[in-house]
Amino acid sequence: MLRAIARTAIVCGLAAAGATSAGAAEKIVYASYMSEVYTVSKTDLWMMGEIEKRSNGEIKFEKYFSGSLLKAPDLYPGLQSGAADIVLGTPAAYNRADFRLSNVVLPYISSKADAVGKALTELYAGNAAFRKEYESRNAHVLYIVPWAENTFWSSKPLAKADDFKGLKVRSVQAVADSVKKLGGTPVTMAWPEALDALGRGVVDVVSSSPFDSSVLGGIHESAKVGSDGGDMGIFSFAATSMNQQRWNKLSPAHRKIITEVAADAPARFIADLDGELNKAVDKLCAHKGDLTISLFSEAERAKVHKIAAEPVHAEWVKWAAETNKIDTAAVLKDYIALVRKHEATSTWQSGFQRYAARNCGKR
């Protein structure tokens, strides 16, 4: 009898343990250097909420925004080492030497976010070398989304190509290369630090700053001039990725849920960005400070493009080829062709185009 009771107790205990294990949520640690207010963060919040809902709570996220777990340059190295399970980052900016093909999103190509986003998704799917930059670093890319077009927020006049000369400009990636071609001095710093740098006089201009992020971050409140800098367009993208080993440990059912939600995220982001650009324009139009919006004339835009566009593109081709045994000129050509394909059906307007159409503020 005692043995029967003992066996029953053991069986019940194992069953209870199994029930506890089965009922335990799959915890996924998420890290970003952006705060929750930014457009790309809102898309990631939607993604995480949707995954939790579709998994009936079997997947739960532990969220760390604003660099509270990993700073911007540490996100993708941290993902590789397993310090976080999912990260939102811009490795093309903060880990540039390791992600050279990711810098193919160069200035002077397009300001149409929907076209650039679709082009990037197709390029990633079709180019093994591009994928290898992430896969070789233990990153399973969930989705890629473009930042909005580049802006310049200045304490000094910035309405023509010659105005760049002698200015200290917070800038990263190919925007920094363009600034140098135009006679300015690039200053490298992460975006959170850049928000304070203009007001403190550390730099004359803050750039490499997407339209929506700039206004949401309040950089316009420290600036005397907001400028399109000659219509540089979109210069980078954000990638939301999962640690590959962590991904492999998920059940097939959980991987299916995450894959399905991730497939919907880029379109969700574009819808979010559309609304956030309109809000940013509203904010600029309502701004009561001493801010002038300077949009370069067609002649000055052409001058900027002549000075910077072709040389910067050619330099990227050479630089990217240093660590990639592929035809990087062909990669750039393919990317531009994909952008042009999707531009043909795009009705997207940049933030500056929306602002100009409103005919508000000081210009």
From TrEMBL:
InterPro entries: DctP_fam, TRAP_DctP_sf
Top-level taxon: Bacteria
Signal sequence segment: 1-24
One annotated GO biological process: transmembrane transport
Keyword line: Signal
Record protein name field: TRAP-type C4-dicarboxylate transport system substrate-binding protein
